[in-house]
Amino acid sequence: MIDLISFNKALKPTWIKKYLDTTNNAKWKNFFDVALKHYGRENIFAGNLNVKDTTMSIKATDAFLKEILEVWAEVNFEQQIKSQEQLQEQSLWHNSLIEIANKPIFFKDWCAKGITKVKHLQNPGSSNFLSLKDFQLKYSLRVSPLKYYGIISAVKTLRKEVDDHDNS
């Protein structure tokens, strides 16, 4: 006998796959676009949210979309980063491991400039972070020091956990 709850959950990621498919021009995708526009639309699926943060930070009013996001978080969430390479590839946005004031973050203006991963905050070929001035010059983006150093601090906290994992 098929477990209907498991079967239903197994179908949800196919909706995400269809939503992310740029060749799929179905009209239902407009609904997702409108519901997710404040969260970077498809960028939300590149994040690393746990279920709790998904329900707390994504205000989806539609039960179907909410369930899709929760199932995605169940399947996709990586609780521990084990290497520096994995850390550099971490999404800055919608990531339960990179938080400011105990909340995952999303800066739409940064995302629009292509700043999406930890490595985009670092000097090329190095794990050292760009200075605020170098960051602003590189991305032609004016940023408050508080905002910039807040995200750097969040990433440094995660990097320390990775270093501690490497040393154990």
What is this structure's SSE topology?
Elements: H1 4-20, H2 28-36, H3 51-57, H4 63-76, H5 84-88, E1 99-100, E2 103-104, H6 108-112, H7 132-139, H8 145-167
Antiparallel strand pairs: 1-2
Helix pairs in contact: 1-4
Polypeptide structure, described:
The protein has 168 residues and is mainly alpha-helical. The chain folds into two domains: 4-76, no CATH class; 84-167, no CATH class. It is built from eight helices and two strands. The chain has helices at 4-20, 28-36, 51-57, 63-76, 84-88, 108-112, 132-139, 145-167, and strands spanning 99-100, 103-104. It has a two-stranded antiparallel sheet. The longest helix is centred in the C-terminal third of the chain and has 23 residues, at 145-167. It is globular, with a radius of gyration of 17 Å.
Task: Describe the structure concisely for a colleague.
By secondary structure, the protein is an all-alpha fold. 52% of the residues lie in helices and 2% in strands.
Name some characteristics of this structure.
168 residues, mainly alpha
Order of adjacent strands in the largest pleated sheet: 1-2
Head-to-tail CA distance between termini: 45 Å
Helical stretch count? Answer: 8
Number of beta-strand segments: 2
Structural domain count: 2
> What percent strand?
under 5%
Radius of gyration: 17 Å
Helical proportion, percent range: 40-55%
Helix-strand pattern: HHHHHEEHHH
Low-confidence stretches: none
Give the overall silhouette. globular
